[in-house]
Amino acid sequence: MGEQLQPGQAAGFEQIVLPHLDAAYNLARWLVRNTQDAEDIVQESYLRAFKFFGGYQGGDARAWLLKIVRNTSYSFLEKNRPADLTEEFDETIHTAAAGRPDAEAALVQSADSRMLREALDKLPVSYREVLVLRELEGMSYKEIAEVMGVPIGTVMSGLARGRGQLRECLLRARDQEAQRGVRR
Amino acid sequence: MACEGNGPLLHGYLDGELDLVRTLEFEEHLKTCADCAAELREQQVIRQSLRSSNLYERAPETLQSRIRAPLQAGDVQRKVVPIPRRSVLAWFAAAAAVVFAFILGGRLIPQLGTGQQTNLIAQEIVASHIRSLQPGHLFDVQSTDQHTVKPWFDGKIDFAPPVVDLASEGFPLVGGRLDYVDGRPVSALVYRRRLHYINVFIWPSAEGQNATAAVQVREGYNILHWTRGGMTFWAVSDLAGDELKTFADLLRK
């Protein structure tokens, strides 16, 4: 708790941390799946970031800020929606969609933003997190490891699981759309 | 699906995160493993879809201005604490409750609570208290000796907080810490009562008066605030309100 903000650091804070506002909001929004809560979390995260800016040692400011955002988001979920943290992916239909020859074509057809959004929203929070950091935020494994506070190997295996689940979700959604189309 | 054991490697390869040796090994493997090759193509499709999607959520303009305004005002040190929308509602509700009580009681309630700034400080005090109770955050200097704790603050802050030990009254001093409240470094003294910790935050006061203490409750914690001898004091604990009051009275002696 030795971090203190020295006079003159406020300007630095504005230059170094504020540019990552979109990144902060994007992560919070995907973790809590609600725009209102995401705004509150980002605001609180910036408050914390400002408070601890004295302890910022230079380096990757985006990762430094996102670590605060993800911790604030998880605290929020623990307090307000603990069920979100224990949600598991329903893998019962897993085998049906696995190894099918038309998967690639089906995935191309399920590429629209709405289906992607719904599929990503269905994933357990930790897989959603690692996918958002990698695919939307474009972070390296090293940066993701820093944000999530896990080893790089865990980032890689998390991505493997998360992407596997996202693929299943997309294929299922595609099948359901196709069935509706037939019935119409 | 990727073949057994190659799942994570496939993703490391997809992301360009494998070292040269493992990249070459995996490319060799791809030539002979149709499952991994198919999985890789599928994942490339998904990646392409994600990247060309509109899934990235940009911060609304209003949020930008909400965070920027206090910074740009140049008065960052004191005003950085924004008022969340909910607390505006809460204030409104509180005001409505006061009016209602006034109508019911037929008399004016003496004081409408503390000022807004004080309210924000109280929020920070509770947050700091909670954080201090997380493992490893309670002290920078751990000592029951006031003659160790007091000099520890020398050179770390620009004032000398009054440090007294109240062990004989049942509130032993257990340590001290630097903290950051109301836009400035402050001293925090930690006392104990049985299993309860009390944080006392002290910094030079802008208020000249020796204001007295009234217990507030916030998120289940009791808070007491007073000023004395040019210093402002905030005590916070999960201790019962009357015991915290006793403690504060002892400190103010």
Describe the structure.
The complex is a heterodimer of chains A (184) and B (253). Chain A is built from eleven helices and no strands. Chain A is mainly α and 184 residues long. In chain A, helix 2 (21-32) packs antiparallel against helix 9 (125-136), helix 7 (103-109) crosses helix 11 and helix 8 crosses helix 11. The radius of gyration of chain A is 19 Å and the shape is elongated. In chain B, strands 1-2-3-4-7-6-5 form a seven-stranded antiparallel β-sheet, sandwiched between helices. Chain B is built from nine helices and seven strands; from the N terminus they run H-H-H-H-H-H-H-E-H-E-E-E-E-E-E-H. In chain B, strand 3 (184-193) and strand 4 form a beta hairpin. In chain B, helix 1 packs across helix 3. By secondary structure, chain B is α+β, with helices and mostly antiparallel strands. The radius of gyration of chain B is 28 Å and the shape is elongated. Residues 74-83 and 105-114 of chain B have low confidence and may be disordered. Chain B has two domains: 7-52, no CATH class; 111-252, MucB/RseB, C-terminal domain (Phosphorylase Kinase, domain 1, 2-Layer Sandwich). Chain B has helices at residues 7-14, 20-32, 34-51, 61-72, 76-79, 85-105, 116-132, 146-152, 241-251, and strands at 141-142, 173-181, 184-193, 196-204, 215-218, 221-228, 231-237.
